[in-house]
Design goal:
The complex is a heterodimer of chains A (about 325) and B (about 500). By secondary structure, chain A is mostly helical. In chain A, about 75% of the residues lie in helices and about 0% in strands. Chain A is built from 12 helices and no strands. In chain B, helix 12 (about 425-435) runs antiparallel to helix 13 (about 440-455). Chain B is globular. Classes of the chains: A mainly alpha (about 325), B alpha+beta (about 500). Chains A and B meet through helix 2, helix 3, helix 5, helix 7 and helix 8 of A and helix 1, helix 5 and helix 11 of B.
Amino acid sequence: MKRYVLRRVAAFAVTLLFVSALVFVVVRVLPGDPAALILGTEQNPETVARLRRSLGLDRPLVVQYAEWLSGAVRGDLGTSIQYDVPVGRLIVSRLPVTLPLTLLAGALMVAVALPLGVYAATRYRRTADYVAMIVSQLGIAVPSFWSGLLLILFFSVHLGWFRSGGFEGWSAGLWPGVRSLLLPAVALGFFQAAVLVRATRSAVLEVMREDFVRTARAKGLPERRVITLHTLRNALIPIITVVGLQLGQLMAGSIVLESVFALPGLGRLALVAINARDLPVVQGVTLFVAASIVSINFAVDLAYAFVDPRIKYDA
Amino acid sequence: MRRTVVLLVIASVALGIAGFAAAQAPRALVVQTGTEPPGLDLTATPASATAGVVLYNIQECLVKVDAHGKIVPWLAERWHTSDNRNYTFFLKKGVRFHNGRELKAADVKFVIERAMNPETKHPYPQYYAAIGDIIVKDDYTITFSLKSPTANFLLNLARQGSVIYPREAVETLKSAPVGTGPFTLGEWVRGDRIVLKRNPDYHVKGLPKLEQVTYRFIPDPNAALAALKAGDIDASLFGLGPEHVADLKKDGRFDVTIGETTNDVILAMNNSRKPFSDVRVRRAVTYAINKPDVVKLAMFGLGRVIGSTVDPLNPYFVDLAGAMPYDPARAKKLLAEAGYPNGFEAVLKVAPQYYYTVRSGEVIVDQLAKVGVKVRIEQIEWGQWLSRVWKEADYDLTIIGHAEAWDIANYANPKYYFRYDSAKFQELFQKSEVTLDDKARREQYVQMQKMLVDDAPAVFLFIHPRLVVAKKGVTGFWKDLPIPSSDLSEVGWSAAK
């Protein structure tokens, strides 16, 4: 196990190094100069040159990268060009929005998709199965920004139950915070739930054809126990894989929804930073998201061993 | 246990909803803005999002551009010049910065000298280029001597780069600006909102009317509309589009104000590139475009058709909207004369960050096709637009709004992205910069505007409208926008909310 973890940590570092180098080059190769964007249409060549110099953008790319990397290793991700605040602090300040949003959406997704997927599998090729599949097809087809707008129209404008957007902060209390995040979490979770329903259904269907399920039924076990104990447990491996991938996608999906709901999260930060060519922020956020996704994958791998005792990482 | 949980949930929902309804004090206002300021230092950024919050609200200038575009005394209660070279300003006494210290002439000297210093990266050093010397006579008297007469000197002192702040607060300008304005910065929750609080020691009696102003950043126009309808915001100053107007006008809960701005939207042509280097082609393009139709189809009828770059809020504005009316037959004739009887192909580069560019572009492409000019739209991101079109002039056609007031100077700069190079125009403009006699200067401006019609370096389409939507009962917004500020000092609720 120890060797396995060490190997994974090494792979983690290499992945992040690769991601950081890639992002570093890509954001600099893109046309659009941060200094020119800051100065807009009022710039003249001298002011741009001065600003570039003070931002350190006039130095060779390799030097800039080396400097950034040595800072990043020490936990210093640089300073935002736009906000003049350390990037690390900016990211941390956005986590209280994005993290609960992702987790809430993930929880909603699992809570809806797992039972529905299992139910659809047990009603294979019957009306309930078709209804579940049509609903999930709809969920996949409807983009989350649109369902987000519909939710705002119905629950905020029409019923007035929720705020139409914005985030008051957790200092206002638990419920005001959750209330700001509920609609975006539903919009985000619904889309992903639709994907997960299908994955769950096919995974459960596959296992239901196995011999041991037939044996369990032959033993006279109640159908409920057959499904939860024997089928679902064995179908969990592919389901966990999909959930792990989806958690990463939820983080990416929050970029769009945070704009629709005017939430000050990581996605909004990234979007604004890309448009403003705030290079340190783009790099910092990308690195953070990459690290999160790699960590989630790692957790998924560990979860395999937990659900399926046959999987061991010692060898 | 389960019942307790359910009860707790219901109670917290009820409390939350009740709490939200009572959260707003009667003299507070929540306004929506689409873009979060990239920083609050007006001496470091030209961003209009920054000016929209800071200018005339937190920080003020020696003189001010008022709601009607007139330059009026402000921190200086009067000024005097006998030769148009030496301007003496007499500061208003008893004006206090938000930190409690009184404004003195030495502060003004420090601020303007700092703006002139190239090391400080001020975005508009050209505004102060003519200043030779700044002499502090006493605490309330300061004289600027200019190297040459400069017609826009007073205007430049009223603009966003010329705000006065105390020298001890220079380090915190970006995140916690201090000034003399009607509001102080309460808090800035990055990504969500900026809260301004009433300045109790404001030097204008009776102002501001509001205790608190909250700017909420809502980037999506549809989300902004929903927030307005849900009652989460009281007013939208810049965020809504013309497509929302008809619906909002019908809604009895809101007042819709449509005014003028200095933002002239143009179809720029690359004057250095064939076929647009031929004035006959540029005129043909102008004749081929039905501007009222562009406004009708792209802007839902909102926006004033113009004929030259000078906007109606400028005192020297001449209405030339009808100078080159829609005339496709004439356009075709001109194209034939220029050697393009069957038209030509061109690419129109637009940045969808500004919605009106794409929409106007689609209408114009259709109109130009009718005279044989086949235009393909290429959408590029704003950063790319700035570097490719604006900086390198690598384009045939583009659409953009020029929001800056008094920006006719751009046409006197042959390196500007239009690449319009007319020695006669440049000479006329230089003359107007040093002409201080109002009548003579007006005559020069009229001539310049007419030259722009004749030479057609761009097609001057329309003025982007100012669009303010507010709950009924909110009064005091500027109708027009002669300067990119959203002065909220006189905004208030007419009756108890």
